[in-house]
Amino acid sequence: MLLPDRKTAHLHHGRVSQAGMCYFLTICTQHREAVLTKSTEAGRILRTLSTLETSGDFVLHAATILPDHLHLLFTLGSRLTLGQTMAKLKNLTRDMGQRHGAGSRMVSSTGSDQTNSSRTTVSTFS
Q1: Which CATH entry fits the domain spanning 18-125: 3.30.70.1290, 1.10.3720.10, 2.60.40.10, 1.20.190.20?
Q2: The whole model's pTM is what?
């Protein structure tokens, strides 16, 4: 089943990336495949989130990992923009999987490789 074109480019219109702002993100796997049911995949994501928090990229308030997507609630740090933080999250998750022989499906950091793209939805709270 093909998913409808969600016009994700429109998500960037009006998006604000501001340090200290609280963001709620939903990140979907490629083709909404239920690949996050394995404890190894969930563990990889949790380790990545811990790395981002330790490096000061954000303060994580809550995370929910579901079979085909994850939800994050965090306050953005001052080191990186929102886009850079999401690219780092996806890159670190992918890189951990490649080192351990697992294949993550949340692999696109830029969205330029359409065959490996994932979708990110952003909401902000002040």
Answers
A1: 3.30.70.1290
A2: 0.70
